[in-house]
Amino acid sequence: MKVLVATEKPFAKEAVEGIREIVEQAGYELCLLEKYTEKAQLLEAVADVDALIVRSDKVTAEVIEAAKNLKIVVRAGAGYDNVDLAAATQRGVVVMNTPGQNSNAVAELALGMMIYMARNGFTPGTGGELQGKTLAIHAYGNVGKLVAKKGKALGMRVVAYDPFITDAYVYENDGIEKVDTVEELYAKADYLSLHMPSTAETKASIGYEKLMSMPKGATLVNTARKEVIDEEGLKQAMTERADLKYVTDIAPVNAAEMAELFGKRFFATPKKQGAETAEANINAGLAAARQIVDFFVNGVTRFQVNK
Ligand code: 3PG
Which atom of ligand 1 is nearest to the CA of 97? Predict the structure, then answer.
């Protein structure tokens, strides 16, 4: 049985060692394809593997077609918008993610990015504080919950909205406020932190109107996906309102233009690094390896996302 780890953005060394240990203890062979630059390299590497571990690597219909023995793909992370689920399902390939395993790293980065913007890109003599400001969480999943908790610890007032979590008790139990509409959420947000997946419904869903409804001096924080932003609408809102700021871990297509137009009101990390910590790599990578072994040995499909 061959397990391939294919990561254009490699895991930390300790994570790879941990994955190897789990895979080899189960009697399987580990194959590694790291920092590849061409699709052809991935197509060649998947040819005879039974299982595949990826990060944001694109597992397209072509990749699934090339992997004749493939039975399972585990996306070591939360968002699985990089995997063609329909193609996998059609071939009978199980697709899983590892929910929650890298959430803390992403949540810490979201707060770090808020502080960076509040301090005006660490420009002396111009900063503000997060304490006392309203932190609005859009989508209250694993990452959203951790961002809320950390924001509270910094003295922020935390409000949240999630169309799929309507039970008020969930929010009350975490000591935060539930808001009932997305409009209300944006109207309250000094800092608006995005935590939804990229889906047909969420794509380009954050744009001009939502931005324009935010309070004076508001900051939009994106550690989710670039696809959820309507980039033209965002640019228009930031052009009309010189007080709005945007900070993102996933550079927009027009990043160079945004930087030129908006100076310190815009910041994008050079490469997505929300989950780029040794801890997150170890948690997600080892969970992926364990899920593969558990699938082959015991038939466990708990985190399957293409049921
Ligand atoms: C996720 O969906 O888990 C995060 O976006 C992390 O993605 P990465 O593994 O490509 O860093």
Answer: 3
Q: Are residues 164 and 230 in the same domain?
A: yes
What does the pLDDT look like over 251-305, one tens digit per residue? Answer: 999 999 999 999 999 999 999 999 999 999 999 999 999 999 999 999 999 999 9
At CA 90, angle to CA 85 and CA 93, rounded to 5?
Answer: 65
Tell me the helix, strand and coil percentages in the chain, rounded to 5.
Answer: 40, 20, 40
Q: Write out pLDDT tens, residues 123-182.
A: 999 999 999 999 999 999 999 999 999 999 999 999 999 999 999 999 999 999 999 999
Whether residue 306 is contained in a domain is answered as no
Tell me the residue range of the domain where 76 lies.
2-101+276-298
Ligand 1 atom at shortest distance from the alpha carbon of 225: 5
Pocket residues: Cβ below 6 A from ligand 1 = 9, 55-56, 77-79, 102, 272, 274-275
Alpha carbon distances (Å) from 176 to 105, 132, 134, 148, 184: 21, 14, 11, 8, 15
**Of ligand 1's atoms, which has the minimum distance to the CA of residue 224?**
5
Residues 212 and 241 in one domain: yes
